[in-house]
Amino acid sequence: MKFILDIIKGMFIGVANIIPGVSGGTMAVSMGIYDKVVSSINGLTRQFKKSFVTLLPIVIGMAAGIGIFSFIIPHCLDKYAFQTCMCFCGLILGGVPELFLNTNKAFKKEEKKIGPFHILAFAIFLAIAVWMALASPESKGADSINTSFASILIMLGLGIIASATMVVPGISGSLILMMLGYYSGVVGTVKNFIVALKNFDKTALLHDIALLVPFGIGCILGFLLISKLITWLFKKCESVTYCAIIALVLASPFAIFMKMENASFDAVSIIVGVVLLVAGTVFTYLFGKKTKSK
What we know:
Blueprint: H1 2-17, H2 24-30, H3 34-42, H4 48-79, H5 81-93, H6 96-110, H7 116-134, H8 149-167, H9 173-180, H10 183-199, H11 202-236, H12 238-258, H13 267-293
């Protein structure tokens, strides 16, 4: 049962990673598995079996979420942008109470009260998140990437950058890719790979694998590097780190709506959006509590 629940959580994180403005790290926080994911990634070199078993269902869910919803989410954002954004805001906000609870525990454990460093961390990371939201990428990039040595190196670098931002709550990896001009190229490659796999097109499969493998290797490297930093921060200054995470999470809804396009605001759309916001909030809150108890 726990394995299936972790797959579901991983799917939400995977879906979040393909929506510009939405952070996979934030979704991991909202799902109540952020600490577990970071510590498990960091522990791969020391406790491989334990960390692998912990990460396996989450990674399976992420892969399924990215693979399946790379077709669905672009359609939803194009046809039902407001409702989709409201739903994801609800999914994020539902995890905020648990985040505040963990922050309060950190303050008690350190026997501290809010001080200048906590305020400074909150302000700096809130500013970073807002700046990221206001940034306007000029191009979403081409829908496909050619296989060349340069492209393979670029995909490796993109994997490192994207995965690093996925681990940090509030920073959208897909938005970073969009700002660099490779968002559509990476998502298009994933979609083309799934279509080629379905049709068993060997030529197309080899082309896509040649790009996705270095991207995957880059993701692993990025995860390992940034997770060690996050783990170190939690050990040395847990309450300050939580203040920074709170700033990034609270700025996420702003980032989501700043990147919203093709939105319609008729009465029905607004009502449906509000319902999805409430439903998403309640779902994440109750789902987090239920799975935490298990």
